[in-house]
């Protein structure tokens, strides 16, 4: 029997969580399947796609509502034609936009949709459409799978954690790049695009409190965006010289390696890849106990702690209660939850035994999310 023909569908390959997983999936499946990656636009490709069969259908996003509707059907017709032409056995899509095209272009092969964020569940109509037309709904967290099954009656939902090549992460972290703050051993690091869902205003304000106690402390937030309003906030707090926003990086791992502590202030997530990537480099982590992912990564019994509004010293990292979703760039207003986050960061700076405990725990936990486990699960599903 020949290799199965697999199509991976993703809107673009700019820097982002599910884009990274798509490229990793293509590379991991190559030895076992004939893999093609379909993208809607080749603009701003941030990942190494050398050697992969990437098909650009040249249908980038448009602004108007009518244009978006037309685009969905144009893309679906094009992808349906490619599925038939290539004889695709499995079409696996990443993200809501790609999922919609995948189910509308369904042909004789299997259709797999993925749910990459808890926020996707906020559109139950779309989720039910995908559930009806897809053979599998692949979830990046057990909490998302549980909600799909219990609240939307989706019995094809399964959990498949994102893959991580910890050896490659370690190797790439050694690349020589020009890093800020070479003079400090206390660098708080976070990563993500400039988006309100990342809650970065909380982090900047908490860092201000840490910096008052530790003048050598520094904050670096790596990701796409100009971060202009956060620059302004830092200036108003008097910490602009201690804060850096170096932008999006094709290889972010030297920056992750530069951090002393990784802090995630997200209001919602799907499966926060960068949390595991930081842990793969031995960084102690502090994360909001947001939906979804952090509780599953940082504790053994996620069901016992998911959504709890209290501080949890998990087996693999520190969980903090969810932060306010109301954006507040007022430098004169610092909340008790921001003060509490600062205290957790200071704990790791003050207690060397606690720091070393979580550094070792991070390395141990990151090893659980292996490439081998991911591709093994995919191959098993493909044979069902």
Walkthrough of the structure:
This protein folds into 2 domains: 4-163 and 370-383, Glycogen Phosphorylase B (Rossmann fold), CATH 3.40.50; 167-366, Rossmann fold (3-Layer(aba) Sandwich). It is built from 15 helices and 14 strands. The protein has helices spanning 17-29, 65-86, 96-104, 124-133, 142-152, 166-172, 200-213, 228-237, 253-258, 273-280, 294-298, 302-305, 336-350, 352-366, 371-383, and strands spanning 4-10, 33-39, 53-56, 90-93, 110-115, 136-139, 157-159, 187-191, 218-222, 243-247, 261-264, 285-288, 312-313, 318-320. The protein has a 7-stranded parallel sheet with strand order 3-2-1-4-5-6-7, with helices on both faces. The mean pLDDT is 94.
CATH top-level class of the largest domain:
Alpha Beta
Helix content range: 40-55%
Strand order of the largest sheet: 3-2-1-4-5-6-7
What do we call the CATH homologous superfamily of the largest domain? Glycogen Phosphorylase B
CATH architectural designation of the largest domain: 3-Layer(aba) Sandwich
- By DSSP (H or I, 4+ residues per run), the number of helices equals 15
List the helices and strands and how they pair.
Blueprint: E1 4-10, H1 17-29, E2 33-39, E3 53-56, H2 65-86, E4 90-93, H3 96-104, E5 110-115, H4 124-133, E6 136-139, H5 142-152, E7 157-159, H6 166-172, E8 187-191, H7 200-213, E9 218-222, H8 228-237, E10 243-247, H9 253-258, E11 261-264, H10 273-280, E12 285-288, H11 294-298, H12 302-305, E13 312-313, E14 318-320, H13 336-350, H14 352-366, H15 371-383
Parallel strand pairs: 1-2, 1-4, 2-3, 4-5, 5-6, 6-7, 8-9, 8-11, 9-10, 11-12, 12-14
Antiparallel strand pairs: 13-14
Helix pairs in contact: 2-3, 3-4, 7-8, 7-13, 10-14
């Amino acid at each position: 029997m020949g290799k199965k023909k697999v199509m991976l569908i993703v809107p673009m390959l700019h820097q982002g969580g599910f884009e990274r997983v798509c490229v990793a999936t293509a590379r991991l499946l190559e030895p076992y399947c004939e893999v093609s990656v379909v993208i809607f636009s080749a603009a701003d490709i941030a990942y190494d796609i050398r050697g992969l069969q990437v098909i650009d259908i040249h249908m980038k996003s448009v602004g108007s509502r009518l244009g978006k509707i037309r685009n969905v059907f144009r893309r679906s017709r094009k992808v349906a034609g490619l599925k038939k032409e290539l004889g695709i056995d499995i079409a696996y899509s990443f993200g809501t936009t790609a999922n919609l095209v995948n189910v509308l272009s369904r042909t004789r092969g299997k259709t797999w949709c993925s749910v990459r964020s808890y926020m996707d569940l906020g559109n139950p109509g779309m989720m039910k459409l995908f559930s009806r037309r897809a053979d599998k709904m692949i979830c990046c967290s057990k909490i998302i799978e549980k909600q799909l099954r219990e609240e939307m009656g989706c019995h094809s939902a399964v959990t498949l954690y994102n893959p991580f090549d910890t050896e490659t992460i370690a190797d790439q972290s050694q690349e020589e790049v020009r890093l800020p703050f070479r003079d400090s051993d206390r660098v708080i690091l976070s990563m993500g695009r400039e988006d309100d869902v990342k809650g970065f205003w909380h982090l900047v304000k908490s860092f201000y409190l840490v910096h008052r106690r530790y003048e050598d402390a520094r904050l670096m937030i790596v990701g796409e965006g100009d971060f202009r309003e956060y620059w302004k906030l830092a200036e108003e707090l008097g910490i602009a010289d201690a804060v850096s926003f170096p932008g999006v990086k094709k290889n972010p791992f030297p920056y992750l390696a530069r951090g002393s502590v990784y802090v995630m202030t997200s209001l919602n997530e799907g499966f926060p890849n960068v949390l595991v990537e930081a842990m793969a480099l031995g960084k102690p982590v502090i994360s909001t106990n947001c939906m979804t992912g952090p509780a599953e990564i940082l504790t053994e019994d996620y069901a016992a702690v998911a959504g709890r509004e209290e501080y949890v010293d998990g087996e693999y990292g520190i969980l903090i209660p969810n932060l306010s979703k109301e954006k507040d760039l007022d430098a004169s207003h610092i909340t008790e939850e921001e003060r509490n986050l600062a205290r957790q960061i200071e704990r790791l700076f003050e207690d060397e035994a606690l720091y070393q405990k979580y550094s070792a725990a991070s390395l141990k936990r990151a090893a659980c999310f292996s490439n081998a486990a991911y591709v093994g699960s995919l191959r098993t599903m493909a044979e069902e």
